[in-house]
Design goal:
Largest sheet: 8 strands, mixed
Radius of gyration: 17 Å
Number of strands: 10
Shape: globular
Strand content: 15-25%
């Protein structure tokens, strides 16, 4: 585990894999996790990418995973966006590369798409694994009202993430047990984090009109309970990117890495990145 310090002094913990094995030395991958998870959920991805010749930077988002208090909190959309941009700069600087391949799982897909939209020259490709751009699950109307009220007088107030069962992520009993027993998974986020997430959604509606024309890899799970696959697929098909690839895993659940045998998923991800590197 390594650390980097953001502009406001907050220290981010991250996993860093150096390229390994006999594979040719390739580029760098910046890998974003989901809203509830942290980099520890995706260590198989990090190891597979490193074995394929990539350096891998896998940060825990501010307030998540191994990072410090306040848990589940972000001050604003601007802070969330700035953190992602700083991590892209860090990955490129540490690897000596002018650009990075950016991978986003679930909520991390928002950060990935944002970087491609605002820093296209620094993003070599994007991979979106079950991205949280079009969620099926949302707060209730009552909860949304409470969040709005909290933004007036208690921006740090915490609300439950509406993914209250490990079965949303996987049907693999071993991994269900892992999620249930994970002491650092995130279960609540602040009102201001939720607002920041909504504001990012609004900005990402213009993604198809952004300057990014680089490669896009969309990975979808057939047994999906968290995101809207049809809406996500339609959005993907509208993109004017130079190279687009869709990989579908009909029997898999949302966190495809948690399948009993995730090798096909890992192979699809690494093969695409090797081809576009």
């Amino acid at each position: 585990m390594r650390t980097m310090r953001l502009a406001d002094g907050y220290e981010i913990h991250l996993r860093w894999w150096e390229s390994a094995g006999d594979a040719p030395k390739r580029g760098v991958v910046l890998y974003f996790h989901g809203i509830q998870s942290h980099g520890g959920w995706y260590e198989a991805s990090g190891a597979a990418l490193a074995a394929a010749g990539f350096d891998v930077c896998m940060p825990d988002r501010r307030g998540s995973g191994a990072n410090a208090e306040p848990r589940g909190h972000a001050e604003s959309f601007e802070q969330v966006a700035s953190d992602a941009e700083a991590l892209l700069d860090f990955a490129c600087h540490e690897s000596g590369r002018p650009s990075a391949h950016v991978v986003g799982v679930s909520w991390g897909g928002k950060q990935t798409a944002w970087l491609a939209q605002v820093k296209p020259a620094q993003v070599a490709s994007i991979t979106l694994a079950c991205p949280g751009l079009f969620p099926k699950i949302d707060l209730t109307t009552t909860e949304k009202f409470r969040v709005a009220m909290a933004m007036v007088n208690d921006r740090n107030r915490l609300f439950d993430i509406p993914l209250n069962s490990a079965s949303y992520f996987t049907d693999n009993p071993e991994r269900i047990r892992y999620v249930d027993e994970d002491p650092i998974k995130l279960t609540r986020v602040s009102a201001s984090f939720l607002l920041a997430s909504r504001q990012m959604d609004k900005r990402l509606r213009k993604f198809a009109q952004s300057p990014y024309r680089g490669p896009v890899h969309l990975i979808l799970a057939g047994n999906e309970r968290v995101i809207d696959n049809a809406a996500t697929r339609a959005w993907f098909e509208s993109l004017p990117s130079s190279l687009k690839r869709l990989s579908e895993f009909p029997e898999a659940s949302h966190t495809i890495e948690f399948e009993r045998d995730p090798s096909a998923f890992l192979d699809a991800m690494t093969t695409f990145l090797i081809q576009v590197d």
